[in-house]
Amino acid sequence: MSVLDTIRAQVSSHPVVLYMKGTPQFPQCGFSATAVSILHACGVKDFFSVNVLEDQAIREGVKQYANWPTIPQLYINGQFIGGADIMRELYQSGELQRLLQSAVGAHQS
Question: Is 3 exposed, middle or buried (0-12, 13-18, 19+ CB in 10 A)?
């Protein structure tokens, strides 16, 4: 399985996926910490995360997969949403909460 196949499998098999530096409990950069904080503020405590610092192939592959040069990267229902700045904008507008509610709600019922 190629790295891109692995990423495709991860984002398609989990409702919320965050590629980040570090872990949700111990983020290794400010942008990743912001992304985790935003998800928690939206009420999402349980999400699939991938520490890109542990796998260089995933770290580079996720940039190719989304055609997005930075990490963190958020996926909801297999769709690329964006990084920390886009998450912040969507959160402030209320759109991120709606996206997450439909994703998490659909998987809890």
Answer: middle
